[in-house]
Structure formats: structure tokens, C-alpha cells
Amino acid sequence: MRFVNSVFKVLKYPKMGTLKLASRRASFLSRFEITMDLRESISNQTDVALSMTKLLVSKEARDKNFVYSPLSLHVVLSIIAAGSKGPTLDQLLSFLRSKSTDHLNSFASQLVTVVLSDAYPAGGPRLSFADGVWVEQTLPLLPSFKQLVNTDYRATLASVDFQTKAVEVANEVNSWAEKETNGLVKELLPAGSVDSETRLIFANALYFKGAWNEKFDASITKDHDFHLLDGNSVKVPFMTSEEKQFIRPFEGFKVLGLPYKQGEDKRQFTMYIFLPDAKDGLPALVEKLASESGFLERKFPNYQLDVGDFRIPRFKISFGFEASDVLKELGVVLPFTVGGLTEMVESPVGQKLWVSDIFHKSFIEVNEEGTEAAAATAATILLRSALSPSKIDFVADHPFLFLIREDLTGTVLFIGQVLDPRA
Asked: What CATH number has the domain spanning 13-211+316-383?
């Protein structure tokens, strides 16, 4: 899958004053608001992501590190919505907080061409975003659906034999996901998840590799205590720096912004760490972040401050879960029943299609150089037989939330939590 390249020339982020940067961001966004309400769509997508994060923190990943890409899940659900009708479509649109499938598809198209094009040729992060659709060879896709996944989602289409070669097709999808994530996501589809009853598979893969704008000096990385939720502590390597940092304190928590090297491109990718003041305060912080629409948008730091004690642990996380279980708990149940996916294939079989599973896997590594992250999502569709001080400390020595965000548009690519950097 080739990268879709889009290069914009501007002053580099580190050399730009705060007011000038804010002005350019506002100008960039206002031009987008003239063509479409991209900002509102991204804000809604972020709210959905925080709802999912809240559930993951409380259930699927209550006692473990996790990382996932809400953007990858959003795209797969958007493709499913594009092939849906009636109450199933209404439920998906309500969950995704979108007005119509046209709105969803337009949003996806803008994401692919504006936010997710590779920034590496311009000196920024390496970025790859790919969609794939595998369809049973005896089922022709509806021309309108085929055109949609080709144009708005830039998906590669493959006609395959699920009925006699299901295992081979599963291996093909897994190989595709591994290739598109630079080898970081393996075995996206677990053994037995594809069989002769499978009729379609939709998959999305997202890969990100960015170098810090200000790299950490590995020679001064030292072991310190990291406090676990159970009250114990462990020794882990902490990165540190005496450079000014983008930090913003709030009541009960602080937010750190670590920008990635930008290059000649208007997009600015940043990792944000949300650190609760209390060592066991992460669940309450996630609850607060997911409590109201737009809450997160008002919490990002805009100014660099002198730091006192400043330490961030290195960490590496690999995490997978069955997103269908989470979606059902959040009220998305109709796509997993027969009757709503009627706008995908040109056959009476379309009346009997249903989503059996949605699998998601992610990986992230954060070290002195920067961040490498990847995520992949696959949905299998079955046929149913029957206030700032002069100096501020930021010591991430207890569980915290992190996310990777494109700042000009506000798009969140990855969200995760670190409970134990060793894991």
C-alpha cells in the first residue's frame, strides 16, 4: 500500500513563538471549517474514544498496561456503517456521533488525505494508514459500496475463497496487517476466527514512528522507583531533561506535552501524558476526562515552563482485545445481529450478513529517541446459517494515561495507560 503524500510548508514548531503558533493553528482550522466541519467531527470522535477508554480502564485493562487506536476502530466502524441500513445504521451513527454515512465517509476521506499522509518525506514522523477489504469471491460488492471503499477509504480490495480456503485467507489478512504495521502487529486474527461461513473482512492498519523534537540523553537515564496501584514499587529506567517542557497543572493532575520532530509540514504530532497527583488517581482521572464533551480539548499545555524534578519512564506495550465486547457494552449491538448489513453485496445473501467479531491489536514503544506505535483492527462479517509556577516538577512515577495527537486538527491516534513500565 503506497503512502498518500501531502506536504505543507511552514516554519518549524520549535522556532515558532507561542502566539504565532496559536495564530497559525487557528488560521489552519478556520480554513477547514469553511470546507467542512472537520473540527467538530474530530471532537466527536475524541469523545467516543474517551468513552471506550473509560470502559477499557474499568474492565478489559483494569490491572494492565494497554494501548489502542480509537482512530483505527473508528474507520472500521465507519466502513460497516456505510454498508448498513435501518436501525443498525442509526445505532452506529448515534455511537459515532455522526449525522449520516455521507458525513462519516467525508470525514474518513479528510483524515486519510490531510491528517494521516506520511510526514517522513518532509522530515516529520513516518506514518502509514491502510484499509483492506476481503470479500467472498461468489459475492459481488454493490457498485456504490465498492466505489466508496475505493475512493473515501482508499482500501485495497481482494476477492477470496472463504468457503474452502478460510485459513489461507486469515493468514493473508494477518500478513497484510503485519506488513502495514512494520512487523509490530502479528496475528491480528486469532486461530479459528475465520471459517467457511465468513463472507467479508474489513481491516485497518495504522503505523507511527516519530522522533522527539528534543531527544532525551540516554546517558543520564537512571533507575528510580515507580509506584504501582497495589502500593508496591519497582525500579525502572527513567528519562530526564533540564530543557523547558510543555506542562500545564490542573486541580488533581498535570499534563505534559512532548512534541515530535515536525519537518516542513503544518501537522504537529505530540505525545501527551496525563499524570494524576495521587499515586492511585488514574481511574478517577479517566472518569473526569470522559465526563463531558470537549473536556479534553481544554486541557492541553500551550506554554513551555522551566522544570524542577522531571522524569518519564521508558515503556513498551503490546495489547489486544476483542472490541466487539466493548462495543456491545457501550450499546452497539445491532451490527452483531442479522438484518442490518444490506448495503454491501449485490446478492440476497446480504440480508443474512452480520458482524461476528472485531479484533484490535496495538503496540507502542517509548524511549529516549521517540515513539514507535502501531495498531490494527479487523471486523469479520459472517453469513448466519440458520495556573503556573516559575518552575514545575513532573515526575511520572505512578500510573498515568497517555495519548498521541495531531495538534492542528486535534485527531487522537493512540490512547493508553501505563500501570507498570516493566510489563
From this structure: 3.30.497.10
Give the separation between CA 118 and CA 148, rounded to whole angstroms. 22
Which strands make up the sheet holding 370-383, listed edge to edge?
A: 155-160, 126-136, 198-211, 370-383, 353-366, 315-322
Instruction: Please write the tens of the pLDDT for every residue from 383-407.
Output: 765 454 568 999 999 999 999 999 9
> Where are the CATH 3.30.497.10 domain residues in the chain?
13-211+316-383
Please report where in the chains the cell 482512530 appears, as a residue: 71
**pTM exceeds 0.85 for this model:** yes
Helices first, then strands: H and E counts in the chain = 9, 16
pLDDT digits (tens, 9 = 90+) for 19-75: 333 433 443 343 334 344 788 888 889 999 999 999 998 888 888 999 999 999 999
Query: What 8-state DSSP symbol labels residue 120?
Result: G
Which cell numbers hold the place of 386? 440458520
Taking a C-beta distance cutoff of 8 angstroms, is the pair 201, 156 a contact? no
The arrangement of secondary structure in 218-313+388-418, i.e. its CATH architecture, is: Roll (2.30)
Q: Where do we find the cell 513563538?
A: 17
